[in-house]
Hints:
Elements: H1 2-5, H2 20-28, E1 34-37, H3 46-55, E2 61-66, H4 71-79, E3 84-87, H5 92-101
Parallel strand pairs: 1-2, 2-3
Amino acid sequence: MLIKSLPTEWDIEITQAANGLEALEGYRAGKAEIMFLDLTMPELDGYGVLEQLQKEGLNTFVIVVSADIQPIAQERVRKLGAVAFCKKPVNPQEIQAILKQYGIVL
């Protein structure tokens, strides 16, 4: 669903991860300039991924996408380095607005 929400004119390679550990492996392999991160994942949840990125000093553009829209969850992910938070189901206009806000060229 998220992939369908990305701008159609965006010429990118998409890599998916089944869990948080795979997401970190993908980042370390250079496959995550922009990371869309769910909070609920097996092996290592989204908070754990953000904590590990922060701990290792890894720098990527993280947009959290979650059904957990509680203000405390949003505040926590921002403190852990996420630049934005989108609720599920994802709204394509919201994704495009976030990308434009941060100067991501489409």
